[in-house]
Amino acid sequence: MSMSEGRDGRERLVVIGGDAAGMSAASQARRLKGPGELEIVAFERGHFTSYSACGIPYWVGGEVPERDRLIARTPEEHRSRGIDLRLRTEVTEIDVAGQRVRARELDSGAESWTPYDKLVIATGARPVRPDLPGADAPGVHGVQTLDDGQALLDTLARTRGRRAVVVGAGYIGVEMAEALIHHGFEVTVVNRGREPMSTLDPDMGRLVHRAMEGLGITMVNDAEVTKLLTAPDGRVRAVATEDAEYPADLVVLGIGVRPATALARAAGLPLGAHGGLLTDLAMRVRGHEDIWAGGDCVEVLNLVSGQEQYVPLGTHANKHGQVIGTNAGGGYATFPGVVGTAVSKVCDLEIARTGLREKDALRAGLRFETVTVESTSRAGYYPGAAPMTVKMLAERRTGRLLGVQIVGREGAGKRVDIAAVALTAQMTVEQMTALDLGYAPPFSPVWDPVLVAARKAAAKVRAR
């Protein structure tokens, strides 16, 4: 008999983390087993549960008018379904041998141990905060949680100056640059890479660079931040690189995130090369029958390269939670892996990618051909047709699709889903040319841009 079964005969499922993966797991387990069979205890150190972190830049920018629209399910709704949800409570230790976790109430400081029969680790990610002078000064913000978003909005409301610097030019960086433009700030983006959006190849990132400058954003590439300078009152006043200083009344850190796995590491659980937890197809932590992990704290299999990858996205976190909850609730489900699809925007520019970049393919030992085509989102003669650039990678000899990147205006971004399906089905570019896609002049040219790229890639593979 387990430690927690001795109380009333029920199994206890403990969940660490109350956002997408954790609460999806708890909710799915509850659907399969009622409160009389399974007790569920969930710990969340913040004030909110089940919210869209991906929506925070749009809330800050004003497209989403209020915070509560980002919350899919409130703590009260979870509790009404028989989940013992404990907010403002941080798990500080996992005792794997003793099957228990130690938690601290953040407001009172009280600590206690909670036994478990089954454990879900959904601790998410933590923003990369540079270990630099001034990084913790007032006016410097990360954007990871709803609390972070509220803190940034509060600062925006009381900041008199209108100069903002965003450090980093990945998804968070470009989305926050847009949000700050909406607030009337002069925005400078300082980026250590050759071009913005390192999830794209540099030639496609250059298109994003040009478009951002066209929106009035100052792009500073190949620049390493060395320190954040502060005013006599302690607030941030500038961002410094080796070559220059960029005045700032406000700084947003968009450098990215790392898996929050300090708890798991201390407990001796297996971590991968990127620092994320390693799981099997059922999302069980490898070597541990009754511990699962999902969301931004795990590594996933890339189905194109066959290598483990760190991909912190809400789409995966929700799927992980469904799989974990099904298995923890006595059912069976698996998560096979990802192809690496992501989409973003900065103002009216849409940015999308799936599969492998050139450097990913080289790292995996693949040889490939690339093609880049320029087309439009609709028939060229139809009003509103907007330019679009599509880059495609195909494996040499076999013609297997390896990756697609798209940069364009309205109607460009979601076209990446065609490629995502083709990658999952392991299609060749030759096979893609025969795809029966929807056509009418308001929606696409008679040859969709993705199919034009596939046709050119197929011709290049054949010519080889």
UniProtKB/TrEMBL annotation:
Q: Which GO terms describe its molecular function?
A: oxidoreductase activity
The Pyridine nucleotide-disulphide oxidoreductase dimerisation domain covers which part of the protein?
Answer: 344-446
SUPFAM superfamilies linked: FAD/NAD(P)-binding domain (SSF51905), FAD/NAD-linked reductases, dimerisation (C-terminal) domain (SSF55424)
Q: Where is the FAD/NAD(P)-binding domain?
A: 12-304
Alphabetically list the UniProt keywords.
FAD, Flavoprotein, Oxidoreductase, Redox-active center
Concerning InterPro entries, the annotation shows: FAD-bd_OxRdtase, FAD/NAD-bd_sf, FAD/NAD-binding_dom, FAD/NAD-linked_Rdtase_dimer_sf, Pyr_nucl-diS_OxRdtase_dimer
Q: What does the record give as cofactor?
A: FAD
**Which family is it part of?**
Belongs to the class-III pyridine nucleotide-disulfide oxidoreductase family.
User: Which protein are we looking at?
Assistant: FAD-dependent oxidoreductase
Native source organism of the sequence: Streptomyces actinomycinicus
